[in-house]
Amino acid sequence: MSGDTSPYRAACARGELVIQRCTACDRRIHLPEPACPWCGGHEFAFEPASGDGLVHTYTVVHRSFAPGYRGREPYVMAWVDLPEGAGVRARGGVPARTGAHRPAGTGDVPGRPAPLEARVKLGNVLIPVADLDEAIAFYGLPVKFRDGDRFAALDGGGVTVALAGPAEQVTDSAAPSYKVDDVTAAVERLTARGGEVVRAPEAGPHETRAVLRDPSGNLFVLYSPL
Ligand SMILES: [Zn+2]
Hints:
The protein is mainly β. It has three domains: 6-48, no CATH class; 53-106, no CATH class; 121-225, 2,3-Dihydroxybiphenyl 1,2-Dioxygenase, domain 1 (Roll). The chain has helices at residues 6-13, 132-139, 183-192, and strands at residues 18-22, 28-29, 44-48, 54-61, 75-81, 87-92, 121-128, 143-147, 151-155, 160-164, 175-179, 196-203, 207-213, 219-225. The strands form three sheets. Strands 8-9-10-7-11-14-13-12 form an eight-stranded mixed β-sheet. The two termini are 29 Å apart. The structure holds zinc ion. The site of zinc ion has 8 residues, from loops.
């Protein structure tokens, strides 16, 4: 296709977010453009967003001054960076429960130990599987993203169900996988608290990652998208 951005709108109509990628220079472009703003290329791929993202900030709109949004209050407006490298501003139709989340970088809650990172959240649960096709059929969840036979991200509702094929073996058993800003810094902090390093920080195909055991011996993964 040449200069065609219609796949983006078609995906929107299906309720999916795809990111335009210039096949000449490999940069992501969002919102889509008929020509690449960096290299002028006209050949594009449109790839599904993984569903992961880092919320920088959000606000709950109770009274909208934007005509297109009037009558839909309350809704959430959020600024989210995607691991695909594109920044988006997203509207969620989520009735806000203030206090359920705290905005990025607001620091620690007095009386509680500092979290792994200021913005830690459970990113996915990593499940090592022998065969991706078989496992996808077994779990029966919608596939959000797939990388050949290495990896598939399934929509598990609130959390991604991450299937790791034999080529993507990170742990021998299912393990919670926490997304952090800085894997090395988080490993240092957690070993100081009695965690044990199983695999030191290393580069994966889509992320930096490390495997640790908690003081009870439970495996978990830390990762940070590249
Ligand atoms: Zn380009």
